[in-house]
Amino acid sequence: MSDTTVLKLEDVGVRFRRRTSLLRSEWRWAIRHLSFDVKAGETLGVVGRNGAGKSTLLKVLTGILAPDEGKVTRYCDTASLLTINLGFMPHLSGRDNAILSGMLMGLARSDVQARLGEIIEFSELGADIDEPFRTYSAGMKARLGFAISLVADPDIILMDEILGVGDRSFRRKSTEAMREKIRSDKTVVLVSHQEEVLSSVCDRIIWLDNGGMVMEGSTSEVLRGYTAPENQLPGGKAP
Amino acid sequence: MKYLDIIFYKTWADLRAEASRAYIGFLWWFIEPILYMGTFYVLFGLGLRMGGEGFVYFLLCGLIPWKWFSSTISNGSRAIEAGAGMIHQVYLPKVILPTIIVCINTVKFLIILPILMIFLVLSGYGIEVSWLAMPLLIALQLLMVWSLTSFCAALVPFVPDLRYVIENGLLLLMFVSGVFFDIDGLSGTIRTVLYLNPMAVLIDSYREVLLLGSWPGMAGLIYVLSFSIVFAVISWWLLVRFDRRYPKVL
């Protein structure tokens, strides 16, 4: 880990409009008043209950959403969400989907094409790569998504859960590949509910609740607070 | 540049996927327009003999550019909504999505058009010098189609109800664009009003070039160009302005 900042959030807030009746709607802040830095090479964990704003935060970090308040400054080229669902097109073949997704994640077409062999091998799809995506089983879809994510090598990797997908052997292989990425000097932001994963890979953790930051600090410190019994009750108040 | 590559690759992939769904694949790109034209030929050229001498050619010169225009707007206005799955996972400039639809339909038009021109030559229309104006007309219509498709695509995610307005607006527009009749045959105010529709100007220009062998009227084309530029600028502005807002409403 170095001291170079790759991503800086200053007082960031994102709000969504929620329709309450035909003509009336109200704004709801999914995240608000968030300020923190992501340093080059670190693995930053994000914890929080469902609806705490974790997914919205990841979308702001990738640039899918712009903040309605505050400022996000990026000091790198690409920050992508590693996910098994890359928004594939059902009517296109696995190969075309792989090439398009790779390009959308920042690779040049020639790079994706050069690494297609790797994608096919890791996803264990073989000749099925040329079949339309809609004919794939859930496991095949997940494997393809995972393999592309792995090959596309963004400057900042954002993960929503370390994905254990597919059958037992693929799950082991994919989890191992993910852990390797995390252990390397890549910058990773990881959302997870698995405390043992977080405590083994994260350098630092951010704890969100109700769209706001409850705590930011070292892994052990934040996890101690987050897993404390009084904070695990439904509707429990953050300290 | 990277995004241009994505547009071209997606266009190509979609066209291939469409073809691979049928048994005889890409042959349909040629057979479909021939059947389409053949239907009108049988109906108006051989069967009904309605509308008098040469009506079928008159009709086809209107229908084929119209088909390009209407199917692009109809599909393209849903482009951003249709890409919802993707834009939630990865950032991409939303202007790409309607542009891909425009490209796909342009390729299809560029396949039909030579077939129409061959059909005209076989039917006794000479190849005229004026045909050199075709690239100009095509480029102009491409700009016009892109600007209106992007405009619709930019607004539909915020106001989904617009889709119904667009579909019915296209139907109305088909009847007033002079696909089935000659606007020049009308007189006075109604003629002027109908020619405010850029598609009417373009269809009339295609006929002048292909059927009459004369050069298209420049005033009309300059009007279409100005119209398209205005809409292109507005659409571009909207798509850039709301680029990172679309994921919120979809």
Structure description:
The complex is a heterodimer of chains A (239) and B (250). Chain A has a 6-stranded mixed beta sheet with strand order 5-6-7-3-8-9, sandwiched between helices. Chain A has a 3-stranded antiparallel beta sheet with strand order 2-1-4. With 239 residues, chain A is α/β, with parallel strands linked by helices. The mean pLDDT of chain A is 86. Chain A has 8 helices and 9 strands. Chain B has 250 residues and is mainly alpha-helical. Chain B has one domain (2-249). Chain B has 12 helices and no strands. Chain B has helices at 2-20, 27-47, 55-76, 79-82, 84-87, 96-122, 134-155, 162-176, 188-194, 198-212, 218-241, 246-249. The longest helix of chain B is centred in the middle third of the chain and has 27 residues, at 96-122. The mean pLDDT of chain B is 91. Chain A binds chain B through residues 16-17, 59, 62-66, 80-81, 83, 85-89, 91-93, 96, 99-101, 103-106, 108-109, 132, and chain B through 2, 5-6, 9-10, 13-14, 16-18, 20-21, 83, 85-92, 243-245, 247-248.
Number of helices of chain B: 12
**Largest interface, and how many residues on either side?**
A-B, 30 and 26 residues
> What's the order of the H and E elements of chain A?
EEEHEEHHHHEHEHEEH
Tell me the number of helical segments of chain A per DSSP (H or I, 4 or more residues long): 8
Structural class label of chain A: alpha/beta
Along the chain, the helix and strand elements of chain B come as HHHHHHHHHHHH
Strand content of chain B: under 5%
Number of strands of chain A: 9
State the separation between the terminal residues of chain A, measured CA to CA. Answer: 30 Å
Relative strand content of chain A? 25-35%
- Describe the oligomeric state of these chains in a short phrase: heterodimer
